Amino acid sequence: MMTFYRRNLPHWHPHEQDIFITWRLKGSLPAHLRGIASKDLPGERFLDLDRALDRAHAGPLWLRRPGVAECVVAALRKMRDKQLIDVHAYAVMANHVHVLMTPISPLAEITRLVKGTTARQANLLLGFTGSYFWQDESFDHWVRNPAEWQKIRIYIERNPVVAGLVSRPEDWPWSSASRPLK
Question: What is the pLDDT of residue 37?
Fold first, then answer.
């Protein structure tokens, strides 16, 4: 069984297949990168945008606040405890989140619950009301084989190192490298 829908990006979700998903804060993509059509492969475009998010020193960086980052980790844990997902790797960055998971419920439901819960909690912590917190659409990629799964897990857990936030993956407090959900 496979779910498919299209917004700005196509979204293919095979039933209970591992998914790599990234979502970002509303307005976090630098203006010069928004809406640029790319002839690159989607994976290359993703890497370019992810590097730009990692280097960001302006724009919304609310996830670097410990209480806000903790909301995201707690939401992932809650989804796991409710047996809606199995989380294999995650990293909460300053303005985006990466997760490698096996969705047990439909991915659209999972992202709606995680993003809705965390947006409400974060807006309360930040003193915002009625503000959009997350960008509407997420990037997702279904994992096709064990080698790709391992590559993605390493990518996620090394993301704080590549972004220059820590020197070792296990030093980043909002990541599966230091705090596995299992």
Answer: 45
